[in-house]
Structure formats: C-alpha cells, structure tokens
Design brief:
12 helices; binds magnesium ion; alpha/beta; TIM Barrel; binds glyoxylic acid; eight-stranded parallel beta barrel
C-alpha cells in the first residue's frame, strides 16, 4: 500500500470568498479544497480564480494538502481554471479535483492539459495529483477505467448531493437514508463500489459532504458508516466538523496499540530467534500473515494521523 497523504478531513472552502479563505488558514484539516465549482457562482469564476491564485502564492495553510476544485468538462470553464490556477500558482497546488467525472477521456484530457501547463511554466511535470469525484450514474458505471486513467490520481471522492440528483433518489437530505427505503443502507452499493475500486488501484476513498452542518450527531452517524467500511476520510463543510472527522477516521488508540503489538509479535515469532513460526499466539489470539496485513492498515492510518503507542510488546522470556 503506497503512503498517500492523510485525508481524514477535507475542508471545502468557496474560492470566491476572501473571508472564508482567510478563515481556513487558522484551521487544521488534513486537506482543503478551494472551490471553483458549485460553491463559486458562474459570475464569480474569474474573481475566484484570482483569489485562489493569490491565496496559494501567499500561503499560510501549514502543511495540509492544498487542492483546487475546478469545473467539470461539460462547462465552458475547465481549461481556463487549469491555465490560470496551475499557471499562476502551480508550485503551491498539491492536487486538482475534477468533479462529475463520467469517462476516462475526461481524466486523460485533464492530464494532458495540466502536463502542458506544467511544461510551459517550467514546473515539475506530474507532481500535481488528481482527486476524482464520482457523482453521477455514468461515473459509477465507468469507475474502473476512470480510476486507471491517469497516474496522477490519488483519490476517488463520492459526491452524494450530485449523485442523489443523478439517480433521482427520493430525498433532499444529503447523506441520510431516503424515506421509504427500509431494508438497508441506500448508499451501500455506491460506497462499496468506490471503495473496492480505490483499493484495487491503490487510491484513497473519500466520502463527500454532510450538509446539515449544525447536526454533529448526524455527521458522526454518517461518517462512522463510511469509516467502518474502510474509507480514508470525509469532507468538512464547517470548521466544527473537522475534529469530529479527524477522530472518526483515525484508529481508536487501543486498536492502534493492538496493531503495533501484532506487527512486533509477528515479526518476532516468524524470525529464527522466535522459532520461525507462521502462526503464533498473541495473548488469546492467533495471529498469522493475514493478521499482519490487517495490522499494517491500522498502523499506517495511526502513524499518518500522528498517533504514538501507549505500550510496547515484549517477546516471551
Ligand atoms: C459534492 O460535490 C456533492 O455533490 O455531494
Ligand atoms: Mg458535487
């Protein structure tokens, strides 16, 4: 599993609001995106590009992942977003987020355009990554080839609001179950498809926004579901959502300690000093190579979240 940057929380920041951009500087999400798409009105796109370029060049966002969400290819704006943002502040952009992706060609077109702008600006070619939003029926049906379309891609991001509109789900409450569907989780297939595709291409799987920003219980309920499946993080639309998400998408301390214990114990038991055994006991639990793989996941997420152990494992004396 490649080491990707942590993205437990991704803060959405409207690109045309200087006030919100300034406010974001004092916050500590793992990532943020400056939005040129749906949170930036059509008449404010030019102004948004200027504000974003200035903000990125000015800096002050700490070491978080800096993303710009550009407009999708069905609009008149995508090429200008890329030329202005990468041309004006490319060295300070970690990723571009492409919304409403429907086909491989859309990702490839973005890759070609970004490559050309990087070359013309003397930037390192290929450094800027992509975040790909899956938020309509076409995107989900083509997800396998979309995920493989560019080596720049780092994440597949579920866009629940657009997705609900795309499939005509009978609800306006984003992230919550549609009334009348009482036999399970209406989002399970979508989330699982995104997760499986992300994992099979070594990408991160990110859950999208929860719009009821005052309802932290609701946020927790929905975020815990995607975290439990294996997602890496979720969007924050408001600063109060950030800490909740950082917590929910980090391993519990006890699970992290346990994972590190498994790694140490298994390394020792499989060594010649420990008897070169492929299966061994850790307390009451039998561990083997599959346990090591599961522990590696939890350990990697814990380390990326800056966690440290509260105990150490000792070989039997
Ligand atoms: C996000 O872009 C969404 O549509 O939910
Ligand atoms: Mg959307």
């Amino acid at each position: 599993m490649p080491q990707l940057r942590p993205r437990r929380s991704t803060l959405a920041v409207p690109g045309s609001s200087q006030k919100m951009i300034d406010k974001a500087r004092g916050l500590a999400p793992d990532a943020l995106f400056l939005d040129l798409e749906d949170a930036c009105a059509p008449a404010a796109k030019d102004q948004g590009r200027k504000l974003i370029v200035d903000a990125l060049n000015e800096g002050g966002f700490g070491d978080i992942v800096r993303v710009v969400r550009i407009n999708d290819w069905t609009t008149p704006w995508t090429h200008r977003d890329v030329i202005d943002v990468v041309g004006g502040a490319g060295a300070h952009v970690d990723c571009l987020m492409l919304p409403k992706v429907q086909s491989t060609a859309q990702v490839q077109a973005l890759d070609m355009l970004v490559t050309q702008v990087e070359k013309s600006e003397g930037l390192e070619v290929g450094r800027i990554g992509f975040e790909i939003q899956i938020e309509n029926a076409q995107g989900l049906l083509a997800i396998e080839s979309i995920a493989a379309a560019s080596p720049r891609t780092e994440t597949l991001v579920f866009g629940p609001a657009d997705f609900m509109a795309s499939i005509q789900m009978k609800s306006l409450v984003v992230g919550e179950q549609p009334e009348g569907y009482d036999v399970g989780d209406a989002y399970h297939h979508i989330l699982m498809t995104i997760l499986l595709t992300a994992r099979s291409h070594d990408l991160q799987a990110i859950d999208g926004p929860y719009l009821a920003i005052k309802d932290l219980d609701g946020l927790r309920r929905v975020a815990q579901r995607s975290a439990a499946l294996g997602f890496d993080g979720k969007w924050a639309l408001h600063p109060t959502q950030i800490d909740e998400l950082n917590d929910i998408f980090s391993p519990r301390q006890d699970d992290y300690d346990h994972a590190e214990d498994i790694l140490d114990a298994y390394a020792w038991h499989t060594s010649s000093e420990g008897g070169a055994r492929g299966a061994a006991m850790l307390g009451d639990e039998m561990i083997d190579e599959a346990s090591r793989k599961m522990a590696l996941v939890v350990s990697a997420k814990g380390r990326a979240a800056g966690m440290s152990r509260t105990r150490t494992w000792q070989p039997p004396s």
